[in-house]
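G.,

No rush on this.
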Amino acid sequence: MKSAILTPVKEPAETIRIIYERRAVRKYKNKPVERDLIQEVIDAGRMAPSAINKQPWKFYVLTEKEMIRSFSKEIAAVAIKEFSRSGIRNIVKTASHLLHFSHGFDFRAMEDPVFHGAPVVIFITAPRDNEWAPLDIGMCAQNMMLAAKAVGLDSCPVGFAKFVGNTKLYPRLTVPDSEEVFLSVILGYGDEHPEIHDRRKNNVIFIHESSGY
């Protein structure tokens, strides 16, 4: 599979530069994020396109450190049980990999195995009966992460957040029964600089229609 590091054109527009510089960061400084920056990031999410312009998203924000850690540990525990019920082999190893701790770390002993010590966790919900919600929320989250980079923050999407609905702490989010959590985005001041991964280059197909008429 041919792949390469993609590089933007020389002197790229600001938006292009942000797209290329954004990384999934999983190590954060012990520094709170200003409320106005959190709001700015969420506002950018609100500007995402959505099916029939329904704008289905709602945002549930955690900023209290101990609460974030509690949610993190419960979500990790529930995730392990879910994998176990699914009959996946080597449950702990599999979950550790999915939690990005597959390099010798015991995520069960960590204080924050799911949210990586980020000072802000934003759970994004949508109505349960909205078939386009996953797509809409994906675009919303991408807007948020790019906006975060633009204002000096780092971020990471956390798919494991969907397991929060099966935790004992879930009622503390006050999410109505008509909604469900599809994704979370964590924010903070990053304490690492991940390298860019190779990107596949052989996945573009130009369709040429013959002019036979």
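When you get to it, here's the other one too:
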Amino acid sequence: MRTLITGAKGRLGSRLAERLNHSHEVTGIDIDSVDFTDFQAIRQTVRTLKPELVLHCGAMTAVDECALNPDEALRVNGYGTKNVALACLEVDAAMLYVSTNEVFDGRNTGEISEYDPVHPINSYGYSKMVGEQVVRDHLRKFYIVRTSWLFAQGGNNFIHAILKRAREGQPLRVVVNEVAVPTYNYDLAEAIIKLISTQQYGIYHLVNAGRASRWAFARKVLDLAGFESLEIEKISAAEYARPSTPPEYSVLKNSAAAALGITLRPWQDAVQAYLQHEGLLIS
């Protein structure tokens, strides 16, 4: 299958390219080669390559940066996604759009199903909601994949930040009332590969199993990395000042993919696998 991946230098895009390279005819693009916010540029690329599938991983994902630059977030995540969708429409390509738990407002303290109403409360979530909507408006053959709290090999993320502070002996204060599902990019990539093989289009929640607060996530990381005795102060989201306001509760429920036999392991096991891969697992 001819497959185009946007954001191919990112953590998820690069992993998908690596895993699909043997079974798909993969072309990866990134901002330095083709800017998907330029309609004519992405249109010409898609016309030339004539992909059967486009995996749209490219995005502005720095949540606080989106809060500080909401127009730019909308331009990239919303209108840029529209450009990709319109280009797909011209060549009848299927499209997979990677979205987020932050399209929800955080008021549902249970599990959020795929077709529950979205209501973002920050600029990042709003821009990704717009991206979802333009995909649904323009395409018939699409997958919208929502995920949450992605941690990836080889990059700065929550796990790296927590361990860095632990090694430096800095005090740790972590939010206890922000709850979602930590998700390993390797597991997400495998789930996406299984999903696209089904050609069962629709909206999907692909996250590792379970739920965690930011505090519980940090506690698990420290325990596995040999910092069991290190204390973490529990704080509320209101005590942690940042430009963006994340949803407090956004636990995504994998119903649609599970019905196709696609499930992800518990997040605790995924964190352990990640740390082992990084050479950071102690216990």
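The mean pLDDT is 96. The first strand starts at residue 2 and ends at 6.

Enjoy the weekend,
O.
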